[in-house]
Amino acid sequence: MMKMTALEVKGHALRKGFRGYDVREVEELRDAASEALGEAAREIMDLSEKLEEAEERIREYASNENTLREAITTVQRMAEEMKSNARKEAEILLAEARLQADEIIRQAQSRSTALQDEIFRLRKQRKEIESSIKAVIEYHSSILLLEEEESQKADEESDKLKFLPK
In angstroms, what CA-CA distances link 24 with 15, 20, 27, 29, 31? Predict the structure, then answer.
């Protein structure tokens, strides 16, 4: 069967027979069929346009969905990289802090050793000074004692000389 448009149905001439169909009814039927086909054609065109619009929107949605998936994947990858970099940086900072702490401890121990050596040297020096002062005091004490003894002897001699006739 051949596909006919609404205009072809309307323009189709029917044969008239002697006792055939009523021409007016056939004409009305033909007009109604023509209108129905025209309406169906318009509806099909409208639906085809709507289908194309819907398909275009679906393609846009699919494109947007792919873009969103790619963006989410990129953001997730970036977040993982940031976490990884933060971990590495924290490890580096921690290692540097440990090295600094070890250096500070080494310096403190070195300073402590130097201070202990200095304390020992000062104690030794104090003992030497005390010994030296004691020696000086003993020397001067002994000199004072000798001078006192000599002074007493001199006084005694002088007292003896007083009693001698002149």
Answer: 13, 12, 5, 8, 10
Cα–Cα distance for residue pair 44/50, rounded to 1 Å: 10
In terms of pTM, does the model score above 0.85? no
Burial string for 85-100 (b: 16+ CB within 10 Å, else e) reads eeeeeeeeeeeeeeee
Which string of DSSP letters, residue by residue, matches 118-145? HHHHHHHHHHHHHHHHHHHHHHHHHHHH
Q: Is residue 14 a contact partner of residue 26, using CB atoms and an 8 Å limit? A: yes
pLDDT tier for residue 40 given thresholds of 50, 70 and 90 = confident
Asked if 34 and 10 touch (Cβ cutoff 8 Å), the reply is: yes
